[in-house]
Input
Amino acid sequence: MEFQWPEHFQPSVVRSGFGAGTVSTHTLALEAWRRGLKVTFLAPSGKELEVSDGSRTVRFDRSRAASEISEEAYSIVESKYDTTAALRAAGVPVPEAFALAASETTFEEVRAHAESLGYPVVLKPMRGSRGRGVFANIQSVEQLPEYYTYLVDDLGSEHIVLERHHFGGDYRAFVVGDRFIAACQRIPARVSGDGTHTVGELIDQKNRLRRQNPFLSGGLIAKDYEVRSMVAQQGLTMDSVPLRDADVQLRQKANASAGGDVVDVTDAFPEHMQAAAVSAVSAIPGLPAAGVDILWDPDNAGVGRPSS
Output
């Protein structure tokens, strides 16, 4: 595959940020310089910087405009459950959810909550990002103990969110103030069989391709518990050789940081979805900009929340 690089975003400039978590600040700095703004890096890691036009200065932590976000907004968006509650109070459609403390909740209570929501359900840590520890589309009470135990015992998650799973395309919309800026569709990690290579080898091939991309290089597909479990649900192992063009899904969640693919859909993003994204950001006091994750099925209403 031949990559087309923007004129001001050449590999020779951003290569050092590949997989290091600094591609976003590289991009911000390049665009700010191109516009004649002053850029000051605040840490050797390259993850913090200030951008100034001489009268106003904004401090960024990676892509987050840290100096512009209120303490109240930070407090809300750091908790997936509190974010959902704030959006629900503002009339934004979000999944039904329960907040659980592992040390104070028996599994019988977890099961009862799941049954009250109705399967499928989602389990995830209360705090965190990049899709770590998120287990979606849990189909039955038979699957629930496996994921709950792994989340608590192996990942050490004390505070957990249990919520209703909703089907639909996974989208992320970016909003600044009251303006929709851009959107992408996120597709869960997957590989396509060629009749020759094993699932494990196909993952290695895809990771080699992802390493060439400044953004995707930070989201390689790990052959972790979730991936192996997903492969097993399709009757396969890492050593299985899928038939040519056979689709092998590797995760339920669609985060690019977890190996998902990203497609720009800005120009085709419906106006009602743009409005929903703006409403979600405005529901959080003191949040000047955010990415809003939306599940949208054209036949049903979507649900969303600002990403954190």
